[in-house]
Amino acid sequence: MSDEIILTRAGYEKLKQELEHLKTVGRAQSAERIRRARAQGDLSENFEYHEAKRAQAMLEGRIRELQRILEIAQVVDHLPGEDGVITVGSVVTVKDLEHNEEWTFRVVDTASAAVLVPEEEIDHVSAASPIGQAVVGKQVGDIVQVETPEGTVDYEILSIHT
After folding, report:
1. What's this model's pTM, rounded to 2 decimal places?
2. Would you give per-residue pLDDT tens digits along the chain (162 residues)?
3. What's the CATH number where 61 sits?
4. Maximum Cα interatomic distance, the chain, rounded to a whole number of Å
5. Do 70 and 117 reside in the same domain of the chain?
6. Which domain holds residue 57?
7. What letter does residue 38 receive in the DSSP assignment?
């Protein structure tokens, strides 16, 4: 996990709610599932018990992950692009200077990067990704360099909007 996590206020609150739900409801359900499986007898050959313990370990791992994210997250509150600077939520059009190709994408927070928004037909790019890190804080006309597996790519920022 990256050491820099950028979240919108809404994304931060969503993760806080998930954490609270897992710590209360999730843990209670997990404990009940283990209790029921344990009541079935011999634990050495009890698939349901071992599955319940595995699920509990995954739950606790997610709780730790959420706690770490919330501890180190940088929350952005201002509207994207309101000051002409790219931030989480901005829709950015860049031009690959070598191939003369344009690409439009929305910069999203880490929690939203994998969420598909059906009504949007543009790519979502995490602010923590190499391109996200390169463009956040930049303005129209700036040229950024992004390290990719194929080498360095130079992009010119053509437009920013919401």
Report:
1. 0.59
2. 445 677 778 788 889 999 999 999 999 999 999 999 988 888 888 889 999 999 999 999 999 999 998 998 878 765 555 568 898 888 999 999 999 999 999 888 776 655 544 455 788 888 888 999 999 989 999 999 999 888 999 999 999 986
3. 1.10.287.180
4. 69
5. no
6. 5-76
7. H
